[in-house]
Amino acid sequence: MKPRITVVGSVNMDLVFRTPRMPALGETLHGHEFRQIPGGKGANQAVAAARQGAQVNFIGAVGDDGFGAFSKQCLSAEGIDITHLTTVAGVATGVAGILVEDGGDNSIVLAAGANACLQSQHIDAARSGINGAQLLLCQLETPIATVEHAIAVAREQGVKVILNPAPAQDLSPVLLKQVDFLILNETEASQLSGISVIDQVTAQTASEKLLAMGIVTIILTMGGNGALITQQAGSKFIPAVKVDVLDTTAAGDTFVGAFAVGIANGLSVLEASIEAQYTAALTVTRLGAQTSIPQRQEVLDFMAQRKAM
């Protein structure tokens, strides 16, 4: 049977511009191309999990506009259950303006739109989807009170929780203690730990501080510099998978979604992290968010090619 994962999170329409570099303040810069691509951290992670073989239930909100209708269509086409993807009247769907440099780095500006309307009552209406899941997956592009409520519901039912605390913000120790797997990048680790993460040594120090807050497992992703797994039993560094980078958009989301499927399938944290690394590596060789996320067979073929299996 497919593993069951419930995602509480955001839906955005990504407006993606490819540019030779980031524009200076007040500068008008000619870009190479423009694309409109479905995105949002929650939706990206849901798509990543679905393409890696999970049965995914999505809880979120879109506006009653063309972007919302198209986003629902795209998620449904992935086999994702959108029964609890609410349409909010009179509100725009979330939008992300994304500038992607030729080197692959990006800068993003978000307008939350309907994502800000996701409330605790929406979580209560979808309790059956959380109760029947093996994992609950959350991020922070929806109101923090809603995320806290969803995690509390999961804990009541013994459902394990993965939190991707992005975009970075301060979180209460009470919330962090309810998280089984915290997956974050250098910026988010710096925000939560108060330690500037700039290399593997500072990543280790920050992770140990977060571990002391009661989190069971911390996975600190560092892009092209690899990832660090920290648990009470010790730490393990995983080198990055080297590829030619086109666009880093959704790489982190792909890692999170693929990791969730690995854990739900019974893999160890190390095994799930390695598979997630390879899945994310394929993502950065392609343009866009959901358009770049690979299918399961592509990942297996890639790992076999790199002799990772």
From TrEMBL:
Domain of life (superkingdom): Bacteria
First-level EC class: transferase
Main location: cytoplasm
Domain Carbohydrate kinase PfkB: 4-295
Binding site for ATP: N185, T221, M222, G223, G224, N225, G226, G252, D253
Cofactor: Mg(2+)
Regulation: Activated by a monovalent cation that binds near, but not in, the active site. The most likely occupant of the site in vivo is potassium. Ion binding induces a conformational change that may alter substrate affinity.
SUPFAM superfamilies for the chain: Ribokinase-like
Keywords carried by this UniProt record: ATP-binding, Carbohydrate metabolism, Cytoplasm, Kinase, Magnesium, Metal-binding, Nucleotide-binding, Potassium, Transferase
Cell location: Cytoplasm
Catalytic activity from the UniProt record: D-ribose + ATP = D-ribose 5-phosphate + ADP + H(+)
Cofactor notes: Requires a divalent cation, most likely magnesium in vivo, as an electrophilic catalyst to aid phosphoryl group transfer. It is the chelate of the metal and the nucleotide that is the actual substrate.
GO MF assignments: ATP binding; metal ion binding; ribokinase activity
PROSITE patterns linked to this entry: PFKB_KINASES_2
The enzyme's E.C. designation: 2.7.1.15
Residues holding substrate: N12, M13, D14, G40, K41, G42, A43, N44, E141, D253
Role of this protein: Catalyzes the phosphorylation of ribose at O-5 in a reaction requiring ATP and magnesium. The resulting D-ribose-5-phosphate can then be used either for sythesis of nucleotides, histidine, and tryptophan, or as a component of the pentose phosphate pathway.
HAMAP family: Ribokinase (MF_01987)
Family: Belongs to the carbohydrate kinase pfkB family.
Protein name as catalogued: Ribokinase
Source organism of this protein record: Undibacterium jejuense
Name of the gene this protein is made from: rbsK
